[in-house]
Design goal:
- It is elongated and about 165 Å long.
- β11 and β12 form a beta hairpin.
- The chain has a four-stranded antiparallel sheet, with no helix packed on it. It has a four-stranded antiparallel sheet with strand order 7-8-9-10, with no helix packed on it.
- 28% of the residues are buried.
- The protein is of the alpha+beta class and 699 residues long.
- It contains 28 helices and 21 strands.
- Pfam families: Beta-prop_Vps41, TPR_Vps41.
Length: 699
């Protein structure tokens, strides 16, 4: 056995052994002058060598009789070695074995062909890989009350090992090491791996696998196949794995190769993604990671854009520009030139920057608009609607649109775009005229947005044709600006529109509707009769003669009766009620309303030959006329159904009237007497008299 310094011959040692050396371990403090330069050699026994006087080595046997020490690792104060029976862990401060982890997996595997592997990630964690099993152990301090322990347990070591994770794999372990919270394993497949075979990879190749230990099982995080020369001739015993925990590096050692493995950095990952044209993943990684040093977001983004453009994926490239180019005007202008070169500006147009502070040169926007004007009219309209007018020279674009319309005057899409452009330079009258020509409902938004209510009366007929409800809402809301007289005159060619307008004015602005009641009642008579009578009864702003003529010409008897009654021609009203409407109740109400003897006589004369009408008269006349006037004029032998009940009711009403009169006379007499007494008392009361002269008293 030889201990040789890398840079100096000082503290080098050469030992001659009787048996083969299976393993060796240096004291972690070996580099310190006062450490004793300790090291341990494992043969069929475990021997500690340390520096004694005069530079001699002092051997101390730590363990023997348990078989050859096939693996050995020393970390801090703990030494672990593996023999054919299991793994022992010794506290080097007390020279006591604190734990024996028996070999309980893969007992049928010969140890010389499937050797054990040990690794200390830190001074309190031990990883054991042997055959096809892995154990992760933790050093625990034994905490107990010595006074309560039995005498046989007092000599227990102060530390012990606890198995935290233990699982079996489907491959052989050729080495173990730590990687953060995971376990790195150098693996050798037990049998043919079909997943590798399908990829054309020989499953006998060794693999570096990263595992996440779980209770009783594990989860594989990654797997990398190693390119080892002559791997077909090697067995698990020919591979070794050495890990440098702090450097996060691993050395795979085999007869012909030494391979260095380390976790991929973010730069490595990005480089691999770029080599495999996975630009989207590379872009996400460089954006999310702070550990990238050789690449930046813009660099990867431009590579991604180049790739998309070369493949003709212009839509995706245009969407990506917003993310990649950000607020860099120069890059945006470069992108516009690039898309223009392949005639794809229409794809880029929805993604151009519009926010304040990121505006491009107006010529850039004009270039895009002119390209859309030639290639995509619908896209041109959409962009004109979306882009603020301050981004480009609107007059220049208007002239270009007019030139195009000169060749195709019926292009409705370009007309709509032209209207929007006119609005951008405050030529709203032209925009309004175009929208009306197109019959486009955006005209109402234009009116509201730019306060064009003064123009509504001029174009009210077209607006009503386009959307009658929206037009009426505007006219009612801004009736002070939109004069009803002008609106009615403009709508005179369409009676239905006049009716709808005047009806809305009457319902919502009654005072404004008064000058139009004559016209409105004619429209109601023709189009909506149920509204005519309420107008006739409540309004005083129409000509009665004209209204009567309208009703009579259209045979509207009910309305004519009310008009005749209002004009004072109650006799004609009574005639129409009796002859046309044949409504005795209405006739009685009319007579009661006027309380005219002549009107009552005409009603009685009309009813004398009609028994049912006579009964209704007797039941409803009350005290308005003397019932005798009716009874005496009833023809003899005329049978009147319900006459007896009617007469009884008349008598009852008459008796009630007498009682009321008697009661009223009594009340008047009492009130008169009381008032007279009060007046007499007031007259008899003394009156105070005041003099302005003072009387002198004489003694």
């Amino acid at each position: 056995a030889v201990v040789q310094g890398l840079y100096t011959m000082e503290n080098s040692h050469t030992l001659t052994m009787d048996t083969p050396v299976r393993s060796v371990a240096l004291d972690p403090q070996y580099y310190k002058p006062r450490s004793g330069r300790r090291f341990i050699v494992g043969t069929n026994r475990v021997t500690l060598y340390e520096k004694a006087m005069f530079g001699q080595l002092k051997p101390t046997v730590l363990s023997e009789g348990s078989g050859p020490a096939r693996a050995m690792k020393w970390s801090g104060q703990f030494l672990a070695w593996a023999t054919d029976t299991g793994v022992r862990v010794m506290d080097m401060n007390t020279k006591m074995v604190i734990t024996l982890i028996k070999r309980d997996h893969s007992l049928a595997l010969p140890c010389d062909q499937y050797p054990p592997h040990l690794c200390w990630p830190d001074q309190e964690t031990l990883i054991v890989g042997w055959g096809d099993s892995v154990k992760v152990c933790r050093v625990r301090e034994r905490v107990s009350n010595l006074s309560q322990m039995s005498p046989g347990l007092v000599d227990l070591p102060p530390y012990y090992l606890e198995i935290v994770y233990m699982f079996t794999t489907d491959f052989y372990i050729c080495g173990v090491g730590p990687l953060d919270e995971h376990v790195v394993v150098l693996a050798y497949n037990k049998q043919t791996d079909l997943s590798l075979a399908s990829l054309g990879v020989d499953s006998r190749r060794p693999q570096m696998r990263v595992l996440e230990p779980l209770q009783g099982t594990f989860e594989e995080i990654s797997k990398d196949v190693l390119g080892i020369r002559c791997y077909q001739e090697y067995k698990p015993a020919n591979y070794h794995l050495v890990s440098l925990v702090e450097d996060r590096q691993f050395y795979i050692v085999c007869p012909q190769d030494v391979v260095v493995a380390k976790p991929r950095s973010a730069d490595d990952r990005i480089e691999w993604l770029l080599e495999h044209s996975k630009f989207a993943e590379a872009l996400d990684l460089v954006e999310a990671s702070r550990e990238v040093h050789h690449y930046n977001f813009l660099m990867i983004g431009r590579m991604y854009l180049d790739n998309l453009m070369s493949q003709g994926s212009y839509q995706e490239a245009a969407k990506l520009c917003t993310r990649i180019l950000g607020s860099d005007k120069a890059l945006w202008e470069e992108a516009v030139v690039r898309f223009n070169r392949v005639r794809q500006l229409r794809v880029l147009s929805p993604h151009l920057p519009l926010k304040q502070g990121v505006h491009l040169d107006p010529i850039v926007y004009q270039t895009v608009l002119l390209d859309l004007l030639q290639t995509d009219h619908q896209g041109f309209l959409q962009v004109v609607q979306d882009w603020p007018g301050n981004l480009y020279n609107v007059s220049f674009v208007i002239n270009a649109v007019l030139e195009t319309l000169a060749r195709n005057t019926n292009n409705l899409i370009l007309l709509q775009a032209l209207a929007h452009l006119y609005s951008n330079i405050d030529k709203h009258d032209k925009a309004l005229a175009i929208y009306l020509k197109l019959k486009h409902k955006d005209v109402f938004q234009l009116i509201g947005r730019h306060n064009l209510y003064s123009c509504v009366a001029k174009h009210v007929l077209e607006l009503m044709t386009l959307d009658i409800n929206a037009t009426l809402d505007i006219c009612m809301q801004y009736i002070e600006v939109i004069e009803p007289r002008i609106v009615v005159q403009a709508l005179s060619s369409n009676n239905y529109f006049v009716y709808k307008y005047l009806d809305a004015v009457y319902e919502k602005k009654k005072d404004e509707s008064q000058p139009f009641h004559d016209q409105l009642l004619s429209l109601y008579a023709d189009m909506e009769r149920p509204k005519l009578l309420p107008l006739l009864l409540t309004s005083g702003s129409y000509d009665l003669s004209h209204a009567l003529e309208v009703c009579q010409s259209r045979c509207l008897t009910t309305e004519a009766i009310h008009l005749l009654n209002r004009m004072g021609n109650s006799i004609e009203s009574l005639r129409l009620i009796l002859q046309e409407e044949q409504d005795i109740q209405w006739a009685i109400r009319l007579c009661k309303e006027h309380d005219d003897a002549d009107l009552w006589n005409r009603l009685i004369e009309y009813c004398l030959d009609k028994p049912d009408y006579i009964r209704e008269l007797l039941n409803n006349i009350g005290t308005h006329i003397d019932p005798i006037m009716i009874i005496q004029r009833i023809p003899n032998n005329l049978e009147i159904p319900g006459l007896r009940d009617a007469l009884v009711r008349i008598l009852h009403d008459y008796h009630l009237q007498i009682q009321l009169r008697t009661g009223c006379q009594t009340i008047l007499a009492v009130d008169g007497s009381n008032l007279l007494a009060k007046q007499v008392a007031t007259q008899n009361a003394a009156m105070p008299v005041y003099s302005k002269y003072k009387l002198k008293s004489h003694l």
